[in-house]
Amino acid sequence: MSTGHPNSMIPRLIADIGGTNARFALIAGDATQPYAERVLPCADFPDPVAAIEHYLVQVNAPRPLEAAIAIATPITGDRIKMTNHVWSFSIEKTRQRLGLKRLLMLNDFTALAMSLPYLRPEELHQVGSGQPLPGTPIALIGPGTGLGMSGLVPAGDRWIPLQGEGGHATFSPGDDREIEILRVIRRQYSHVSTERLVSGMGLVNLYQAIALLEGTEAQFLTPPDITERGRNGTCPLCLEALQTFCGILGTAAGNLVLALGATAGVYIGGGIVPRLGDFFDASPFRQRFEQKGRFSVYLAAVPSYVIRSKYPALIGAAQAFTTY
Q1: What is the pTM assigned to this prediction?
Q2: 322: buried, middle or exposed (CB in 10 Å: 19+, 13-18, 0-12)?
Q3: What number of other Cβ atoms are within 10 A of residue 227's Cβ?
Q4: CA within 20 to 30 Å of 18's CA: 88, 137, 307, 315, which one?
Q5: Residue 81 and residue 193 in one domain
Q6: Which residues contact 50 (CB under 8 A, 6 or more apart)?
Q7: Rounded to the nearest 5 degrees, what angle is found at the Cα of 312, between the Cα atoms of 306 and 314?
Q8: What is the CATH number of the domain that holds 137?
């Protein structure tokens, strides 16, 4: 990780703000390679301006005049209200408070999608078989604090990134056990989205629902607790929760590929799956991804990749200065 900065030009600020952490970096002029990366907990700051000011002091950088910020919420106007965090702010007032000439705001998974053509082979891990079909759309899905979805659509010699909120589409169970789980979770939520099961909070929801179905009192476990106990097999309830999580993610990824015609592949980002390692490879993900009846052969030919780049959405945010 670089801590210095080129002194020959004023840097641009790039950021990737999720429901839990905010990642910041700088790029030099028209370059797209981030440097001076830092990760700050969102909960430590009242708003993004405070977090950005703290970051700039940390890295002792010249004050940027332009910024591109990817954030985990829909961008529909000047007012931003985060889905999985308390920050709510005006884009224009944020620009003014930071003294920026230009402030670009984009959905975090739109930025992540924009990074995909620039990721190196060693930053990707293929799960299952399949080969990309060039010149066709790319799908992107990723569970973290929430569940993000996006994609890239080819348009001549460039890609058009999508901004969507597919993680909030209604969850559809894939087997009898998931029907039972859905019945339990519906007692808490009038609308059960896929995000309610495939995210950090989704792991907790799954664990608690499975414990209830098994007649066992659920412990107070965090998503990392459930992940660790599931991976090492020390807790059967956590193991089932984690396997169910992976299976539902596979179904959702297959649905997204079918919706976009994304035969160039599906990429899996977010903060959870890259940490699962070999567990994810052996999980029900790929089997459920391909399990689409008459279209199982179609999906078996589509590759799936886990993104292992450290800050991929920052790479995508850097592209925003030339894309928008």
Answers
A1: 0.91
A2: exposed
A3: 21
A4: 137
A5: no
A6: none
A7: 165
A8: 3.40.367.20
Strands 88-90 and 79-81: antiparallel
Indicate if the alpha-carbon torsion angle 116, 118, 124, 129 is positive or negative.
positive
pLDDT digits (tens, 9 = 90+) for 303-318: 999 999 989 999 999 9
**pLDDT tens column, 140-157:** 999 999 999 999 999 998
Does residue 3 belong to any structural domain of this protein?
no
- Containing structural domain, residue 230: 121-308
